[in-house]
Specification:
Helix content is 31%, strand content 16%. The chain is an alpha/beta fold and 220 residues long. A 7-stranded parallel β-sheet has the order 1-2-3-4-5-6-7, with helices on one face. The longest helix is centred in the C-terminal third of the chain and has 14 residues. It is globular and about 55 Å long. InterPro entries: LRR_dom_sf (IPR032675). Keywords: Receptor. This is Receptor-type tyrosine-protein phosphatase T.
Length: 220
């Protein structure tokens, strides 16, 4: 089920129909939480018991809590926090707070892609799913003058304490970030490898020439 901008701004009866349709879905994508926070939260709550693959954009704290604690079957999650402005200290000043451990009976994420989620919220999400998360994709730069996520020369210090014991692959996606120089990328990846469990593959979308996946395909 794909929720586009037109659905968020549709007539009330159409939005009610979408809420009904969300019950029982396995795939839910394109949910722009900031355009109608109350309705999109209800949408997530309707889908929560069955959804396994979810994409949310600009989620508020209630939306993140719904994805974190109310979706027992969720295995793949894509979170984008992008409003066209720099993501940095201002965003971390009042980050969404997530309760640490997953509730009993939750499967735990296997796959996670994040762009622009505040660092502290990202850390709490990673810690909660540290025992199940196998692939992590982060939209980050390596070094520069702008804030998070464009400058992330200390990525190793963010990931190291999360205890990602199930992680097999980390993909550093450079799209949308300042172009990464090869030296900065190599330094960043070396530090990250040292901070993660042995054997984790650390890839760069530019240096390793990874194919950009079209919308929706990454959640399948």
């Amino acid at each position: 089920m794909y929720i586009n901008s037109a659905a968020v701004h549709a007539r009330q009866e159409e939005k009610e129909a979408a809420l009904q349709e969300a019950q029982g879905v396995v795939l839910l994508e394109g949910v722009s939480c900031d355009e109608d926070p109350a309705w999109t939260l209800e949408l997530l709550q309707r889908a929560a018991p069955t959804v396994e693959r979810l994409e949310v954009r600009n989620p508020g704290e209630p939306h993140l809590r719904a994805a974190h604690a109310a979706m027992p079957r969720l295995r793949r999650l894509c979170v984008t926090c992008h409003d066209g402005h720099d993501h940095g200290a201002a965003q971390d000043a009042a980050p969404p707070e997530l309760n640490g451990a997953l509730p009993p009976g939750h499967s735990g994420l296997q796959w996670l892609r994040v762009w622009g989620l505040p660092r502290t919220a990202l850390q709490s999400l990673l810690r909660a799913h540290s025992g199940t998360l196998e692939e992590l994709q982060l939209h980050v730069g390596a070094r520069g003058e702008r804030g998070w996520p464009y400058n992330c020369s200390d990525l190793h210090s963010l990931l190291g304490p999360c205890g990602l014991r199930a992680l097999r692959t980390l993909v550093l996606r450079r799209w949308g970030c300042i172009p990464t120089d090869i030296g900065g990328c190599e330094m960043q990846r070396a530090a990250v490898r040292a901070a993660l469990p042995p054997g984790v593959q650390v890839l760069c979308s530019e240096c390793d020439r990874l194919m950009v996946v079209t919308r929706g395909r990454h959640l399948v």
